[in-house]
Amino acid sequence: MNIFSKIYCRTFQLVFKVALPLLPYRQPEILKSVNDVPAVLKAKNIGKAFIVTDGGVMKCGLVDGLTEALTAENIGYSIYDKTMPNPTTAAVEEAREQYINDGCAAIIAVGGGSPMDLAKAVGARIARPKKSVKKMAGILHVRKKLPLLIAVPTTAGTGSETTIAAVITDGETHRKFAINDFPLIPRYSVLDYKLTLGLPKAITAYTGMDALTHAVEAFIGRSTTKDTRRNAIEAVKLIQENLKTCYDNPTDATARRNMLYAAHYAGIAFTKSYVGYVHAVAHSLSGKYGLPHGLTCSVLLPVVLESYGKAAYKKLAILAREIGVADKSDSKQSAAQKFIEWVYAMNEYLGIPRGFSEIKDEDIDQMSRYAAKEGNPLYPVPKLYSRKQLQKLYHKVKL
Predict the structure, then answer these.
(1) Is the dihedral of CA 141, 143, 146, 152 positive or negative?
(2) Cα 190 to chain centroid, rounded
(3) pLDDT of 136-147, one tens digit each?
(4) CA–CA dist 160, 77 (Å, integer)
(5) Beta bridge partners of 50
């Protein structure tokens, strides 16, 4: 990246960092069970809710507790269960039309990151009926209050129940883009670990490593605060202590509860401190090839951390010492390398591959353009990369 581009990116990031205390960040109010949702709706005189979920969540019966609780309190609901991984602009419009036609007044997202992203985008379109989803891509393009939004995560990974972001895929170009604005933060989050019991091993692995990516990228970036650093460290510790247990024993209640909070803390951290090039490249890969977001982040995390080199040593060394894979006698470089080795070892334990056979050489130029546009100047990464520098990351994970 040339010197003028670097100056522009770093100046942009510095302005955002200085403005952090003045921006209207907030945290959702936590509910412990879906049984608490009807009281919230009644207090706000909402008679019908729009539930956004997917077929898998429905099939597993994870929406049943919510619908039974709503029915018991005579609150109506309409269910949109056609959410797919990497939700598209077309799905946003379809769900929005159902919300309007069915006379709903609140949105409840039940599931992983995809239903939450879709629910947020639907809310944004309700708030801004004359503005397309693509026109809201980027930063602060919503600027209107959404209908009441309640998030019910059924995986421990995305942290989307805490964030200002919704990631949507353009169905025509397969490009992923993010909508980032404060009204997208849910008003309430239901952290009920019972909804995560028994998740398949692959989903447990991908979402858990996605949460780790959020925490690590938030911690090593250049726009951290005392609070985001604390939340990121707590998330990394909880993941180290509980993810393998969840993977080996899917019904372990304590580990599942801890992982749900790990994802939540990581979400709080990256909402303020942002992510980095792991996410920028991961979004382009999952948008192009339909790969699970958590999987792409898992594979890319250690590769990108290695590429940062000495720019990330100091902060990675702190994380390494916090989780006990390095000690005070290790140099910053040695401790950082031990942390990266630990990430590789976690991926291997969880059955996560080293790369993707789907990547085609002819697609890399376009994907790197998308990644550069997403990452620069927004993400306060330890080391800035140009489009051509980002292309090397794709080649490193190409099988």
Answers:
(1) positive
(2) 16
(3) 999 899 999 999
(4) 22
(5) 78, 107
